[in-house]
């Protein structure tokens, strides 16, 4: 999945909207189960325990390979977020609900 920010400046305790797109790809073809995507604020482009959860999206099954589903997701920026520069990390299938041959490609940054 990929995310596009609607704003490059956000403030702690506020909301921000993200255009989110997800498509089934590869040899598995389709996503038969619902999936959950988590969005994190991160000081770098690597998902780890110091990243701050800003929201989630629960997606319905995708049955057509390569045809993206696109939605706008509203994220709540935690009031504990300190001033600085952050990446938005998108962790697709964060709860491993979809069987995949490659689980290592589920995180992207914006």
List descriptors.
single chain; 110 residues; mainly beta; four-stranded antiparallel sheet; three-stranded antiparallel sheet; 0% helix
Question: How would you concisely characterize the structure shown here?
Answer:
The chain has 110 residues and is mainly beta. It has strands spanning 2-5, 15-22, 35-42, 52-59, 69-76, 87-91, 107-109.
Spans where pLDDT lies below 50 across 5 or more residues:
none
Number of helices: 0
Percent helix range: under 10%
Largest sheet: 4 strands, antiparallel
Q: What is the CA-atom radius of gyration, in angstroms?
A: 14 Å
Structural class: mainly beta
The secondary-structure element order is EEEEEEE
- End-to-end span in angstroms? 11 Å
Q: Let me know the number of strands.
A: 7
Strands of the widest sheet, in order across it, are 4-3-6-7
| Averaged pLDDT | 78
- Strand portion: 35-45%
**Morphology:** globular
